[in-house]
Specification:
The structure is a homodimer. Chain A is α+β, with helices and mostly antiparallel strands and about 350 residues long. Helix content of chain A is about 35%, strand content about 25%. Chain A folds into 2 domains: about 160 residues, 60s Ribosomal Protein L30, Chain: A (2-Layer Sandwich); about 180 residues, Phosphoribosyl-aminoimidazole Synthetase, Chain A, domain 2 (Alpha-Beta Complex), CATH 3.90.650. Chain A has a 7-stranded mixed β-sheet, with helices on both faces. A 6-stranded mixed β-sheet of chain A has the order 1-2-3-6-4-5. Chains A, B: GO terms for molecular function: ATP binding; magnesium ion binding; thiamine-phosphate kinase activity.
């Protein structure tokens, strides 16, 4: 039992989740009396519980640690904002309206009270921005600052958006820009300068709560998730759940001008755009016949289209050359141990 | 800003919660469109959200750490069971039926996979015991094993039990025994032997899920909470929310025979019964005219009665002598730093 193969770091997050899902016997689709579990752990940004009536409840939880999740340059206010935002972005990804946030915070005993108060103000600011509130939590002491947020939301069953639902021919869209947070992290780690706008994408990511609800209500969107693990990982998740492939146009990827200024290497730019996480944008697919219904909802960019599952996930260069998009990006366990 | 008074450890958990509640502007009782927050953070075991219709949703979160919450003698299976049980006990305390559990787990990278699988089996066993399921979660690496559980439940609004609601003249009841987990912890720390039955109370506490629902449905119970912070702290919480006092009969306190065998010191026995936490029993108040409706529901003991708020919380000795029950017990931040 001391072989490397028996340790957590040797198998990676997704393999471990898969093993534990077997133990938890996650009852996806299984009805439990009045409270059906519509979507269980693992397959979407949130678990989904059937409420009596026309609505469902979505719920998600995320644990963040100071050393692994908060760059040293972040202020306590930003740590609080981020802790709320990661969870509220998952609620948005389902097309749901947030209905409450719970924050469990483990605090080193020698932390300044002023630090914790700033952190709380950041949490509160993000909750208010998303028109919800902190409804509960837990406080205790812990060696390293650790914050586990849980967010709840609700949405009409008919408006719920899953990773499943995209069809060949649907258009692929993203909100905002891609690769901004990744470029900011690279700038910090390599001690290069980058614009405030790019740093803000990493330090104060904005959950697309309002955009998500309008997209869900449009009834034109066929699948959706957030891009927090990076665009490539999101495409693979959508592909797996919807059983579609993708053709993504390289030229269409929406990249901040300041990120283009940051690097003159086109490969590095593509690396940021596809393979770095931390952007809390929405990626979604749209029935092309209903495109008009979503175009005025928010700042969105059409980056490609859905193809057949067996054609895989391809990137089309400006010269119409196709290459495979790889299945890699931000994943906590891999990131630390690869 | 380097004075002791500005550090977290100097003010204790309850003072810190109070400061943060001000920042979070917890909207207790404030209606938010269709989703009223019936009970906000701080005043009960769970936050309560109004669902459309006759039901409400209860939700709670708890963060546990290996060094501060799991005695070294615990098995991984027991750590898993405990992590689920603390949250499911909070759901029971509201009279609600659990509808799902989310577990965020931070795992040291060099942990044996077999350890995590045992932990997951313990979580699953407790969820199954309470007739619910793990519906979501989060995994990442962390220096110290940290588990944040979130439990959801639902209950008819008319059956919801709060800490508020007790009236002078109501009877005070508890399920099971009191002080068992505290005696077990003392035995471990002082390396004295104690029966397996007592150790099990600490290592595998049983959430009173089924009993709680029947108590709620009886419509005879006027207030309820769990005793995880100790009987004395629970009495103070009920008193504060219900605006009642208590007269508790020392002779009536239900103590396991093995705990009575463990110590010959009556003061130590009383210390276990009143001032140690870790028992996941229910304490509740009953309308005396409806006592018969609850007596056959579960193993319960009447330990006293509710009095007027200004008479305080008193312990009556077998010789009818009254002493004050103190406001102390298990609280994470104080426990570590006092």
């Amino acid at each position: 039992m001391t072989m490397k193969e028996t340790k957590v770091y040797s198998i990676g997050e997704r393999a471990l989740i898969s093993r534990l899902s077997g133990i938890f016997n996650t009852p996806e689709g299984k009805e439990r009396g009045q409270e059906g579990i519509l979507v269980g752990a693992g397959s979407d940004d949130c678990a989904v519980l059937d409420l009596k009536g026309e609505d469902c409840l979505v719920v998600t939880t995320d644990m963040l640690h100071r050393t692994t999740d908060f760059p040293p340059e972040m202020t306590p206010w930003q740590m609080g904002w981020m802790s709320a935002a990661v969870n509220l972005s998952d609620i948005a990804a389902m097309g749901a309206e947030p209905t409450g946030l719970l924050m469990a915070i483990g605090i080193p005993a020698d932390t300044e009270i002023a630090f914790i108060e700033e952190l709380a103000k950041g949490i509160q600011a993000c909750a208010e921005f998303c028109e919800t509130a902190v409804i509960g939590g837990d406080l205790d002491t812990h060696a390293e600052l650790t914050i586990t947020g849980t967010a709840l939301g609700r949405v009409k069953k008919s408006h719920l958006l899953l990773r499943k639902g995209a069809k060949p021919g649907d258009l692929v869209c993203v909100t905002g820009h891609t690769g901004s947070a990744g470029a900011a992290l690279e700038a910090i780690q390599s001690k290069k300068s980058v614009s405030e706008n790019v740093l803000k994408a990493l330090f104060e990511p904005v959950p697309r709560t309002k955009e998500a609800r309008k997209l869900a209500e449009s009834e034109a969107v066929t699948s959706m998730m957030d891009t927090s693990d990076g665009l490539a990982m999101s495409l693979y998740d959508l592909a797996r759940q919807s059983k579609v492939g993708f053709r993504i146009r390289e030229e269409a990827l929406p990249i901040l001008p300041e990120v283009e200024d940051f690097t003159s290497d086109p490969d590095e730019l593509l690396e940021f755009a596809l393979y770095t996480g931390g952007d809390f944008e929405l990626i979604f697919t749209v029935d092309p016949g209903r495109l008009k219904k979503v175009q005025n909802i928010c700042n969105l960019t059409i980056i490609g289209e859905c193809t057949k599952y067996d054609t895989g996930i391809a990137l089309e260069s400006p010269e119409f050359r196709l290459t495979n998009i790889e299945q890699r990006g931000y994943l906590q366990l891999k990131a630390e141990n690869s």
